[in-house]
Amino acid sequence: MTPSARHNFAIALIFIAPALWSVNYLVARSAPGHIEPHALASVRWLLASALFSLGNWAELKAHRREIVKDWKHYVMLGALGMWICGAWVYIGGRTTVAVNISLIYSISPVLIVAASAIWLKERISRVQLAGVALAFAGVIHVILKGHWGSLASVDLVPGDGWILAASLSWSIYSILLRRWQSPLSASARLAVISFGGVLVMLPFTLFEAWQNPLPMLTLPGFGLAVAAAALPGYGAYLAYSVMQRELGAARVSVVLYLGPIYAALIAWAVLGEALQTHHAWGAAMILPGIYLVTRPASRPGT
Questions:
Q1: What global pTM score does this model have?
Q2: Domain coordinates of the chain in residue numbers?
Q3: Is residue 89 within 8 Å of 166, Cβ to Cβ?
């Protein structure tokens, strides 16, 4: 694949990955009563690790010395991206509402852009900063349904702390994924990172099973874990890793801002919920904002 083709493919993934991630919201809403948070995250990432490993056994075997040498990096990335951004979101979702989750997670791309400029030395132009601000405003407009005054009435609950931690963890994961170089391909690297996340979650999953007298995993719960492993796990994380390598952490961070638009489209197509004016206005800000962030810079300072 030529450099131009890789770049265009990465741009296309920006619009595909949010559709895969949106499945995780449905999984989180359906999980209570069928599977516990750590069990869901553990089974999800164990299956995803197996998927990432398919076709990469030879590569993983060839680089086993490097993997063992850098095991701390892989475990850290697994803890940040799979444990905290997985189980903690499921825990927080039990006591908070979708509006709070969306508002808190909308901070993450802004943090990634700032961290990319400071620690990764990625050049962020004024136009790209304007794009981030425009997309951020569009997301908040959709979340608040166009009523910005309702920000004052947002109530914080204990679950918001779990979501805030997950949002910060995703920002750190994104930066370290870019900063810590690896000889592995994107899928092989994610196989190791996912398995590292499972190792971190194992004691918490066992404690959860011991503490909960009810079955921690039902057949529908296993089905939810499979869905979470295949789409928002394997598909979305692989797409995110590929995009980062091609476009950089800052430019890819805005992929999260497409989430509310995709959620509205899914609710319209699957649940029959009507699209509202605030969705259109939000899209009118988000899509141009993403274009400004991802377009090639023409000259310094623009």
A1: 0.86
A2: 33-124+159-252
A3: yes
